[in-house]
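Re: beginner question about structure tokens

> Can someone show what the tokenized structure looks like for a real chain? I only ever see the sequence side.

Sure, here's an example I had lying around. Input first:
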Amino acid sequence: MSILVTRPHPDNVATAENLRARGHVVLLAPSLKFEPVAFHDESEAGYGAIIVTSANAIRAVAPQLRDLGLVEVPLFAVGEHTAAVAREFGFTDVIVAGGDAASLRDKVMQGVRDKILKKKSTLLYLAGADLSRDLGGELGAEGFNVVTLTTYRMAPVKILPREVCEGFAAHGIEAVLHYSRRSARAFLDAARDEGVEISALAVPQCCLSETVASVLRDAGASRVLVAATPDENALFDALERALRTRLA
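And the corresponding structure tokens:
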């Protein structure tokens, strides 16, 4: 029996390694594909900080950030994984939020109280093409000048690997891990096109957040589990709960 990971590459590699270390057999079916977008920073304002809601936003433009001296600017990262990637690419002043956009907004506001930022600072928001929340607008309403630059897009992968389709058909997949609303929707679309949607929705769906989970529930999944906090360790805990329930 296998665990299906829908997380995009390259982050799915570390996820698979962690699951295998826990004794699981893993199948990979990234439902979104990372595509960098040309980066042009025409703002002449000095940035008080950079805000990032995805590690991919940094990966897409890392060389330019170093060349522009932006790695020396404080960076507010949505969570520990994004923070680790930021440090990997040379950022040294990294402030870590609690794993979602709301906690990142609150962490930036805390930065003013902690005197890391000035209230009217200009923030550089490195963002994806599809935003689930208007973080720039929310911070703008708090008095910040937010420059939002799109650095990447995540394109839906329209087919499932053959071994995944065969796994669903043979009831050989015991759970699916989901990391975002868009990836969950893309997975459902691909499963429907491949004719395995019913089998796919019959197994436990383990989701990083309630927002992700709602996509699976709306599609008819009967066993949807949500991580207690929006991080991968909590998602793995949800997976273990799902497997224990299945065996009980």
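Each token stands for a local structural state, so reading them left to right follows the chain. The chain has a mean pLDDT of 93.
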